[in-house]
Design a protein that fits this description.
By secondary structure, the chain is mainly α. The chain is built from four helices and no strands. Helix 2 packs parallel to helix 4. The N and C termini lie far apart (24 Å).
Length: 71
């Protein structure tokens, strides 16, 4: 669910608040990978996403060292 919310950051008005609430809940798997191997952090750093979400993911201990399976 966190992946879906992060990918909606550029299209939904309340997506950032939704993502931040998911992170704050402590129940979201911050390091879960999509079928292509991307984490929510990888998705959040793409252009036109949210620096606030990137900072929140890192503060909540999302692992920035996970490698994508896509080569």
């Amino acid at each position: 669910a966190l992946h879906v919310a992060v990918t909606a950051l550029d299209s939904l008005a309340n997506a950032e608040q939704m993502v931040l609430a998911m992170i704050a809940s402590g129940r979201a798997d911050l390091n879960a990978q999509s079928k292509g191997g991307c984490t929510a952090l990888m998705m959040a750093i793409k252009p036109h996403q949210s620096l606030t979400v990137v900072k929140a993911l890192l503060k909540a201990k999302a692992d920035p060292n996970i490698a994508s399976e896509v080569k």
